[in-house]
Design a protein that fits this description.
This protein has 94 residues and is α+β, with helices and mostly antiparallel strands. It is 19% helix and 38% strand. The protein has a two-stranded antiparallel ribbon with strand order 1-2. The longest helix is centred in the middle third of the chain and has 18 residues. The radius of gyration is 23 Å and the shape is elongated.
């Protein structure tokens, strides 16, 4: 069989897929004021933890979310929603 005769096989999918539990916390619902307050608490905690920290260069919090879709021409229709976040603080010590 040469390349012109070759056919790629499209996976039709499984008969059944397990149901994923729903997302319990949507981080996108956290307000900007709550995120700012969390950064301020993180800043204070860093300074309190180590007296050598003279200033904080950055205190950052970020959240995001989205939905992933998997579909094909055989009728496969799957989706999954998720959200995630991260937070960090960069202190300057002397």
């Amino acid at each position: 069989m040469n390349e012109a005769e070759e056919q790629d096989e499209i996976f039709a999918g499984e008969e059944n897929y397990p149901e994923l539990p729903p997302v319990e916390t949507d981080l996108n619902e956290v307000s900007a004021a709550q995120k700012l307050e969390a950064c301020m608490r993180l800043d204070a905690a860093l300074r309190e933890h180590d007296p050598r920290v003279t200033r904080v260069q950055a205190a950052v919090v970020s959240t995001s979310g989205g939905t992933s879709y998997l579909r094909n021409t055989y009728g496969l229709r799957l989706s999954s929603a998720d959200s995630y976040g991260f937070m960090y603080c960069a202190g300057v010590a002397q």
